[in-house]
Design goal:
It is a single chain. This protein is an alpha/beta fold. Strands 2-1-3-6-7 form a five-stranded parallel sheet, sandwiched between helices. Strands 4-5 form a two-stranded antiparallel ribbon. The protein has one domain: Flavodoxin domain (Rossmann fold). 39% of the residues lie in helices and 21% in strands. Helix 1 runs parallel beside helix 8. The protein contains eight helices and seven strands.
């Protein structure tokens, strides 16, 4: 059975286009679903103590440093356990929501989800796929002012997830139901 990690980042819990799309994607795919709702259960920003703990070799960490990294470890374990990530990505002011950026900061860890090599960084979370449900009010996906989809694709590749599919309900305010119809048509073509 497919293991899905669903990540919702919309601040809106009702009337959210991306939440509706992630619902539809997860239903279409089927499988065992873990939900990480970044609006209902917000994540902390990185702190100086977190950075210090992260840069301390695992065997040298104090009990306090281990506790400081515990949430990050749990978030990484969720990604490691999943075959497929389904990520809700609303575009806020041309970029990804701060809640999603906080998640990225906590899961992108050298030596854990990526490693540095003489040829550059190599992602360690390989063999997974991601489906990103993107919605915007007026920004077309891939436009020069779309700083969200390129960001999430880069971050996922950085940690080793290169099989990324976008389901776009872009320019939703301008296109209305046509944007949702296009996104639903994309969902219908997704392989389970």
């Amino acid at each position: 059975m497919t293991k899905i990690l669903r990540i919702d980042s919309s601040a809106r819990t009702k009337g959210s286009v991306t939440r509706d799309l992630t619902d539809r994607i997860v239903t279409h795919l089927g499988g065992d679903v873990t939900i990480r709702d970044l609006a209902q259960d917000p994540l902390p920003q990185l702190t100086e103590d977190w950075v210090a703990a992260n840069f301390t070799p695992a065997g040298d960490r104090t009990a306090e440093q281990v506790q400081t990294l515990a949430l990050s470890d749990a978030l990484i374990a969720e990604v490691e356990a999943a075959d497929t990530l389904v990520i809700g990505l609303p575009i806020y002011n041309f970029g990804a929501p701060a809640a999603l950026k906080a998640w990225v900061d906590l899961i992108a860890r050298a030596g854990v989800t990526f490693k540095y090599t003489p040829d550059g960084p190599v992602g360690l979370l390989t063999g997974k796929r991601a489906i990103v449900a993107m919605a915007s009010g007026g920004v077309p996906m891939g436009a020069p002012v779309d700083f969200a989809t390129g960001f999430i694709k880069q971050v996922l590749a950085f940690v080793g997830i290169t099989d990324v599919t976008f389901v776009a309900a872009d320019q939703h305010v301008a296109r209305g139901d046509d944007a949702l119809k296009a996104a639903n048509a994309q969902i219908a073509t997704l392989a389970a």
